[in-house]
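Quick one: structure tokens for this chain, please?
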Amino acid sequence: MMFKDKYKIGTSTTLSTNGERSRTIGTSTTSFDRLSIRPERPKGVEGLRTNGKQSRTIGILSLGCPRNLVDSEGILGRLNFKGYSIVDMDKAEAAILNTCAFIEDAKTESVDAILDLIDLKRKGKLKKIIVYGCLVQRYKDALIKELPEIDAFVGRVSFPAKLSTTQTGSRLLSKIDWRENHSLGRFPLTPSHYAYLKICEGCINNCSYCVIPRIKGRFNSLQMDSILKKVERFNQDKISELNIIGQDITGYGVDLYKIPKLTELLKRIVKITKNIGWIRLLYLYPNRVTDELIELVRGEPKICKYIDLPIQHINDRILKLMQRHTKKKDILRLVDKIRKRIPGVALRTSLIVGFPSEQDEEFEELLTFIKEIRFERLGAFVYSREEGTKAFDFKKQVPDKIKRERFNAIMSCQQKISQDINKKFLGRIIDVLIDEKEGGVYLGRSQYDAPEVDGLVYVNSKNELKPGDLVKVKIADTLEYDLVGESLE
């Protein structure tokens, strides 16, 4: 089993269906009602009761991004603290599903997972199902109506003062303070040698295509002292890699301290992480990447020379429609500055193709930009029309066929770029973090590769290696996205 599957206690591969896939939650994305959290009263585990008794074994399936994964770790940490046993799904009495609803594909995956769990419940393999997260936050009323088999629906991990719940019949509706959710420690869902640290929740950018502010609410930063206490625990555990995440970590502190404090936070983190090998920064909004932050990344050996810079597009008209608060010239200037000041840096970006009214020449401008800039890492999304966003009502929606063609053109272009960039590693010796062993080969990553989203380094070794080892590897072959090498340890 690939290590990424271990993120999900009771992965979707263990779920079975009975072929009854005709039921849907509404007839289209527009049929869902917007969610509103109802007045609530404190409790917290009623949804896990079965005939007056609590289900003591719990399995979880966590969908979506690493931010969701951190929430799932916090949920399990709370339940573990209360005495529940966290087990694989095939051994669980109760199942928790933490959903994603960012784009159409994510919603489909979440609904399919719910139906899979319902199948298990019908077969007597589960007693209770609790559905958490973004899908519930967006479509609670429809879910309650269409899915009577679900025992509890829990909205976003949010920002009230305390955990709060409400009972609607026998079905629990609630939301959780994300700060409190992480206060009792985490039940790790990642491999033991790396972790995600979420330093903020929500978003302050309000892009016209994005539903995150409606799901997650206003931007909130975790207090710096609380973050540092978490870091101290990770340092005690001697993890090899700490990934610092948030919807936009460059905004960290603007709500608490009135100015961004990411660089200050990182400087304090570096001082207390002598046992941690790498620190990786994920999700940097271009407008707030400062000279001070660039210099810190350049000069601090622990911080990966990896800049995750989602630009979404390059055409000025599209950027304005997206409400990205930046222009092409600003992006070009920033990319040039980063590459000049951080030698050997890997730049990762994400793009949206098929945004409403995107013309052929505007897409060609984006494609030309990619060819010229040659990002080391790149991900692309087909525009997903999401109700509740400003862009939902934009005219001149691009047909799906054209969106898919543009997506394929972007990814085909990036594949060639990635292959060319990887060839430059041939014969070089690089540091590789070992993640797992599959067959007779070790799978690892360079500092230029984030977990789950980037490439791998396939490592041959005469000596036994273990997950978390940082080893010197000489690159002997290159693939489109991956490298192959021999351990020198």
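Residues 1-47, 158-170 have pLDDT under 50 and may be disordered.
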